[in-house]
Structure formats: C-alpha cells, structure tokens
Amino acid sequence: MAIKLKDIAKTKSRLAPGHGACAGCAAPAILKQALYAAGENVVVSFATGCMEVVTTIFPHTAWRVPYIHNAFENSAATMSGVEAAYRALKRQGKIDKDIQFIAFGGDGGTYDIGFQSLSGMLERGHNILYICYDNEAYMNTGIQRSSATPLGAETMTARAGKVKAGKEQHRKDIAAIALAHGIPYVAQASPHNFRDLMSKVEKALSIKGPKFIVALSSCHVGWRFEMQDAIKMCELAVKTCFWPLYEYEYGKLKINYKPKEKLPITDWIKPQGRFKHLFEPKNEHIIEELQKEVDRKWEELLAKEETQG
Predict the structure, then answer these.
(1) Edge-to-edge strands of the sheet including 42-47?
(2) By CB neighbour count within 10 A (0-12 exposed, 13-18 middle, 19+ buried), where does 114 fall?
(3) What element of type H or E holds 216?
(4) What is the band of 102 on the pLDDT scale with cuts at 50, 70, 90?
(5) Where would a tag sit more exposed on the chain, N or C end, judged by fewer CB atoms within 10 A?
(6) Cβ(273)–Cβ(223) under 8 Å?
(7) Contact yes or no for 52/69 (Cβ under 8 A)
(8) What are the backbone dihedrals phi and psi of residue 252, each rounded to the nearest 5 degrees, phi first?
(9) DSSP string across 72-89
(10) Is the model's pLDDT at 86 over the cut of 70?
C-alpha cells in the first residue's frame, strides 16, 4: 500500500475527535492509522483500558465502526466468537460481504490479563488481527507495572527508593511469543512512522488467519515527559533500537528500519521521569544492563535476517 497524505486528508476518520484521551497521548494516533488502513467493513473489539474509557464514556462514543467493549481479559475471545459467527452466517448465505475483524488491547489486556484469550485465538487460527497499543504499564488504573514495563522504570507498584530502583525484570517479548504460535504474520510498529504502521495493518488484513501487531504507545503521564513529545519519544525508541520496526511474514523476518547511527539508550530514557533515578551513581549499572539487552536483541535480529538469505 502506497500511503498518500492527500488520501488520508480526504478520508473521514473512523475514530471521531472530541474523545477524552489525554493531550499528547500516542494511542489515538495508532487507532486512527489502523482504522484508516482497515477500510470501511471492519468490526472492532476493545479490551477495557485507557482507550476504551476515553472513547466510550456513556452515552457517547468516538467509534464510527461497529464496536464491542470487552472486559480486560477477553477482547480476543469475544472477537473469536464474532468471527466464528460471521463464518457460519456466510456459509448459510445470510452475509455476502467481506468483513475484517480487529481486536484491540493495551499491554495490560494483552501481555498479562488477556494473554490466555489471545493465545487461544492465535492457536485456534481465527481470521483476526490483534493490535496491542503498548504504553508499558497499567496507565488507566494508576500506572502499575505490567510485564511490558522496561527494566528500571518506576511505576506505582515498582517504586524507586532506598531499597529498590524501579522494575527489577526486563520486559516480556510479546511479539516473539505470538510468533511462537506459528501464525502467518507478526509485526512491531510505531505511530511516528505512520506509513510503516498502516502498511503493516493492510498487509496483515490481506492474510488469512490470525495476525498480531504490537505498536509502541508513549504515555506522557506514566512515562513523565513533556506532552508535546509523544511522537518524538516513539521515534527515539526506534532509533535507539529499544523498539525495532520489523515484521515476520510466514516466519520470514524483515527489519523495516535500520538506523544509520544507532543512538544510545540514554537518549530515550533521559527525557522520561520514570527513569530519573537511574542516573544516580548507585543505579547507573541498570542503564548499562538496559543497553546490553538492547544491543543483544538488535544483534540477534540482524543476524536472523542475514541468515535467511
């Protein structure tokens, strides 16, 4: 798909303005980009979380497509039922048009609480695209750590103080876990590169079977940076290779962006208040560990792509 700005400008957004998202939130950009690429005939399920709360405050809705609000844990399960019902009705001749199915969830509803239903959806082979907008913590309920929270980041349940220095574990690699299900398409994206994100959504929806995309969604409230820098923070995550842009299509890896000059991880974490404590002398070893992990995973990706020929 050749993404053209003039076409986007002429297309009515399928997520209406005037919702209650925080100023400077990257998540609405992810939703708008994904829905633009999906086209008109799309049904959405959405796990409880930031974007569900701010877009569906009763009696209003920002959604201009069929939308189902789910509990925290069952966006994938709900859409599995919808997709199965659609297939049955199509076999019976009661529906004749093609419909796309997208299940959305935040990192809490994807990496953690909704992981079981996501795994079941992928394993059963439903023709559904699951998109996770990943802001790296439970932002909607007070900034608690999730398994997407990076090592050393401070949250309300992983405090930085005299005893501990933020989260003590590295983040879970949810894309690798999705890939382990043997599904035909897995990708990592960022809203700062809208052409890449939308192309990945379009490609995923053209493939039959379960698909998974995880997009980084910067949160100035939880990450504690200047609200006007939301997209910049996503871009820095990519340029430091903390958040590489890549896709697996039928198991074959393609890295979509390779920075000419890979920036140090400090360029990404220094503007964020949740990492402020890491720059104290007693905690600087955590920065070194973060950098080593980023370097290791980036080198693994490069080597894997190269060995494919």
Answers:
(1) 67-70, 42-47, 100-106, 129-134, 211-216, 185-189, 246-249, 252-255
(2) buried
(3) strand 211-216
(4) very high
(5) C
(6) yes
(7) yes
(8) -95, 125
(9) TT-HHHHHHHHHHHHHHH
(10) yes
Domains by residue range for the chain, with CATH: 5-307 (3.40.50.970)
Ramachandran angles phi, psi of 233, nearest 5° = -65, -35
- pTM of this prediction? 0.96
Average pLDDT over residues 237-242: 98
Question: Is the CB of residue 188 less than 8 Å from the CB of residue 246?
Answer: yes
Work out the mean pLDDT of the chain and round it to a whole number: 96
Residue 279 exposure: Cα atoms within 13 Å on the Cβ side: 12
pLDDT at 141: 94
CA distance 105 to 1: 25
Candidates 15, 10, 48; CA nearest to 31 is: 15
Report H helices in the chain. Answer: 5-10, 27-38, 50-55, 75-91, 115-124, 174-179, 194-206, 220-223, 230-239, 266-269, 284-307
Q: Match 């398409």 to its residue by tokens.
A: 185
